Amino acid sequence: MTIQTSRAVLLRPSSSATRGFADFDDRPLLLPQLEVKRLEDRLRRLSAGAAGALASLARLAGAHSGRDTTAVAVLAVDLGAQLGLDPDELFELEMSSLLHDIGFLCLPDLLLHRQGPLGPEERRMIQSHPQFGRTLLERIPGFERVGHIVGLHHEQPDGRGYPRALRGDEIPMASRILAVAEGFNAMLSQRSYRDRLPLSEALDRLRAAAGTRYDSRVIELIDRQAARYRRWLRELSERTAEPGERLAPFGPFDSGN
Q1: Which of 36, 114, 159, 187 is most buried per CB count within 10 Å?
Q2: pLDDT tens across 40-54, in order?
Q3: What's the predicted TM-score (pTM) here?
Q4: Which residues contact 125 (CB under 8 A, 6 or more apart)?
């Protein structure tokens, strides 16, 4: 019986794998494309579940609220899609956004909840969280690229970021997008030490930092769609995400400008 497949992935065993097996046929094996798609979807679901579990740990550590990471992910993925990232890159960006502050798990609670200004040594410790996050995530199979993005999300186009003082295109686009999404969300969020900024002031700060702290192309997109993004972030701030839940920007959200 012959199995007909419209599209298939060709798998050819390596010579080392077949050495010593005279009866082994060197003809390619056909794996139906539908089965490949199912396997890929299953792996993505497993990855998303792992990211949700890790994000829940970050919330328990008190680094940031779950709503913050969800809002950053929603904003970052929308920006990434407009900048032409492919589906795999968008998935990595989403996971990176949900987990960008996971490195705070490695820092003392007293430091995270300290009131008042930080000293030089304390600031140095806080600035180590991207490297801790990268180390944690790169130990998870399939999360190597996510760890790389997280490890560089505090780099700046002008070379004044950390931990490696990279410049411009040396910084992955996903890390540059994440930096803007995190910063814009923080400006429009209520904090214990300050009120949320008015949209006009947040935009002024972003424009002033374009090309130095933040990528100019990402800032241009924020600038053109600021009212829509503010509406999304407000909606998300009023919702409580269950552990591992992925809140999409569309559906209950207005996708228009």
Answers
A1: 187
A2: 676 667 666 776 677
A3: 0.73
A4: 107, 111
